[in-house]
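Entry, Tuesday afternoon. Goal for today is a structural model of the target with zinc ion bound, before we commit to ordering more compound. Inputs were pasted exactly as handed over by J.K., no edits. I checked the ligand SMILES twice against the vendor sheet because last time a stereocentre got dropped in transcription.
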Amino acid sequence: MLLIHCPYCGPRPELEFSYGGEAHIARPSPPESVSADDWVAFLYLRANRRGLQAERWRHVRGCARFFNALRDTTTDQFLATYRCGEPRPDGGGSASP
Amino acid sequence: MADATAWLHPLPGATRLSFCGDEAAQDAAAAALGLPSSAMPCRAVSVGGRASLWLGPEERLLLAPLNERAQLLASLEAGLAGHAHSLVDISQRQLAFELRGPNASLLLNAQCPLDLALEAFPVDMCTRTVYAKSEIVLWRTAADRFHVEVWRSFSDYVLTLLHAVARELSARP
Ligand SMILES: [Zn+2]
């Protein structure tokens, strides 16, 4: 079974985890002055990359924490996992949260 | 259990509290329980009949004998005053049993994907995990002994599977 390295618990079996979509998507603010197009981008538009992608994962059947992971979507290889709030370790992608 | 190399028996009803809080609140809760404070991931600390199981960086499962419930809640309430926290009585939500014997980890591993070798899952290690499709909390209390917490409504499912696995093991040539 694929092992995923939880930043809190260490290496754990894949089926304890759930996928949480693309990471580092900042909620636009302040909400009252956000345009409809920006809301659409925040809510629905995802890069769906072929290759290296930063993703949210949750160790739902373990410590229940969300964290971020760098995963290659073509090989399913996890290159790194890191806690929410930490920068993307390869420096790629767009900035923050 | 048919297989003579593992024994399963239900544990008596207990006081179970789900606790969440930051480090200061965790220390205060441990002090109120009379337990040493510990932030070590996936480890349980226990003294006498009381235990605090690390389930997440901010989450603990607190266990104590059933008749200590009122006293425990009072000392926790006093000790946690001024600390932001959540404390929920889940005594009736789940039940516990003990699995003991040289084949205990084998029985668990039939439906639980964790590495239960003693080096990878030492005594006092505890975690939320799965047994087949049911969530459980697993706590190794001795080299050949596990404490298993399972939600009441899932207990039939887990125990039926454990007995099925035990039958298979005992039928092995
Ligand atoms: Zn974890």
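Chain B has two domains: 14-89, 93-171.
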